[in-house]
Write a structure and sequence with these properties.
Structural class: alpha/beta
Order of helices and strands: HHHEEEHEHEHHHHEE
Largest sheet: 5 strands, mixed
Strand content: 5-15%
Shape: globular
Distance between the termini: 23 Å
CATH superfamily of the largest domain: Ribonuclease H-like superfamily/Ribonuclease H
């Protein structure tokens, strides 16, 4: 809520009239600060989340067995920053692209070893391309219950193409699907945030490569993606303080 919304709520609910400045000071004294919201889906099913927690937390799994897979989209808007600096009282302005232009889909797999496998294609990824990605990823995996033997992914339609489970299990590996609308349970989202931060940092190089050719863009994209180290990957799996995800002893809890 904004200060004005809090002011209105106090007046209508408690009959108390104070200024917005007073509300701001009271919030600061109580250690309340403005921050970007962490959003969770209303469509998410808590029972399915609990079932997933029970499955992964049954003592069979450890963090080193998991490999997390997902896709992300990249286009000319991706390198754009949303925060800048300017002289007090003036706007922070920058000329940037408003049209996304050509888009790319990046498919990645991450474990405690870092980026296990990565591929990118122009446009949107489809089931056929995803199956090829999984086949190549499986070449780097081990049979259950060794390290890197369990694939974890969401319920996107291209992740559930015909034969995908048989493909995984034929290699002696396991496949787990996350509950619907639960991106916070996939640590690869943290890795994608890191990758896109690097893309913004190298904005001019990335945009120039996009304009030059697919090959030039792929060169710089691979360099950025594989800059995610095992230490960074471990940080992604630990999660923030209020969301413990996949620890060394397997799934811990969700707060």
């Amino acid at each position: 809520m904004t200060s004005m919304e809090l002011k209105t709520a106090l007046e209508e609910g408690r009959g108390i009239s104070v200024s917005c400045n007073t509300i701001d000071r009271a919030c600061a004294q109580a250690d309340y600060t403005c921050k970007q919201l962490t959003r969770s889906a209303l469509e998410a099913n808590d029972q399915l989340k609990a079932a997933f927690v029970a499955t992964v937390g049954n003592g069979e799994y450890t963090a080193r067995q998991f490999i997390f897979v997902d896709e992300t989209r990249i286009n000319r808007i991706t390198p754009c920053r949303h925060i800048g600096r300017s002289v007090l009282g003036s706007r922070a302005c920058r000329r940037d692209y408003f049209v996304r232009g050509k888009s790319y889909s990046g498919i990645a797999a991450i474990s405690l070893d870092g980026i296990r496998h990565f591929d990118a294609v122009p446009g949107a990824a489809n089931g056929q391309l995803f199956n090829i990605f999984i086949e190549n990823l499986l070449d780097t995996m081990n049979p259950w219950p060794q390290d890197n033997s369990v694939l974890v992914m969401d319920n996107a339609s291209i992740h559930k193409t015909r034969g995908i489970r048989e493909l995984v299990e034929a290699r002696g590996c396991r496949l787990l699907y996350l509950p619907p609308y639960s991106p916070e349970l996939n640590p690869i989202e943290e890795a994608f945030s890191t990758i896109k931060a690097h893309i913004r940092r190298r904005r001019n190089e990335v945009l120039a490569a996009m304009e030059a050719s697919d090959a030039a863009f792929y060169d710089i994209l691979w360099d950025i993606v594989f800059s995610v180290t095992p230490q960074m990957a471990a940080g992604c799996l630990d999660g923030p303080d209020d969301l413990r995800t996949y620890g060394e002893e397997g799934y811990v809890c969700i707060v």
